[in-house]
Amino acid sequence: DSGVTQTPKHLITATGQRVTLRCSPRSGDLSVYWYQQSLDQGLQFLIQYYNGEERAKGNILERFSAQQFPDLHSELNLSSLELGDSALYFCASRDLGGEQFFGPGTRLTVL
Amino acid sequence: AQTVTQSQPEMSVQEAETVTLSCTYDTSESDYYLFWYKQPPSRQMILVIRQEAYKQQNATENRFSVNFQKAAKSFSLKISDSQLGDAAMYFCAYRWKTSYDKVIFGPGTSLSVIP
User: With an 8 Å Cβ cutoff, is B9 touching chain A?
Assistant: First the structure.
């Protein structure tokens, strides 16, 4: 158990819909990263927050957005969903030494 | 732009034998982090080993060790005494050591362990 929690574990929805994925970092970690892993593919970095502020941005679509709240939990919002958005979405938090700890992931299926 | 390459999509090793997974990267930075992550069928991402670029000594964690060749920009993972539980996808990753706090992952190597 990494100490990073993600909810829900599984999500099934239809094209055109909007979903919210939630992540709570390890206690004391200020950084939260979001990654997308499509079937049989590596991890694509989406976005990173540090203490409530956006720190770095990767290949995140305009239909996707994220935020980090004062209690440091983060939400990833995916809208106008397409079939290709079906993937495993990971959240990770980072300690001061640079090591990332990954959550168990949210499996999103868009039908 | 920084890139991470893993040239072996699939590898296999006999149980109890040794296997080396390759990773090369491209960067103009002099200080950074390198990681190997394991992703078993459960899909959980598990940190195997990390290396800081300014440290010349190769990192070691039990049966896992790396061969870090900074000039060649190579970061291979050696797994000794392979066990069935080592079967997984292995990802090499690079992280900046600056305020630009992004991580890049390689495409992964699928490792099979043959009993």
Answer: no
Average model confidence (pLDDT) for chain B? Answer: 92
What's the CA gap between A99 and A29, in Å, rounded?
Answer: 11
Cα-flanking dihedrals φ and ψ of residue A83, to 5°? Answer: -55, -35
For residue B35, the chain A residues in CB contact (below 8 A) are: 99-100
**Cβ of A45 under 8 Å from any chain B Cβ?**
yes
Tell me how far CA of residue B3 lies from CA of A68, B87, B93, in angstroms.
28, 25, 9
Pick B22 or B97 by higher pLDDT. B22
Q: Please, which residues bridge with residue B24 across strands? A: B5, B74
Residues of A in contact with B52 (CB under 8 A): 98
Q: Residue A100 and residue B35: Cβ atoms within 8 Å? A: yes
User: How confident is the model over B29-58, as pLDDT tens digits?
Assistant: 888 899 999 999 988 999 999 998 988 889
Tokens at A37, concatenated: 């892993």
Q: Which of B6, B46, B103 to mutate to test the interface with A (most CBs of A within 10 A)?
A: B103
Strands in A1-41 per DSSP E: 5-7, 10-13, 19-24, 31-37
Q: How far is A58 from chain B (nearest CA, A)?
A: 8
Q: Any idea of the CA torsion for A47, A52, A55, A60, to the nearest 10 degrees?
A: 20
Could you tell me the two tokens for A12?
């099934």
**Does the pLDDT at position B60 exceed 60?**
yes
Peptide bond into B40 cis (omega under 30): no
Torsion of CA A60, A61, A63, A67, to 10 degrees: 10
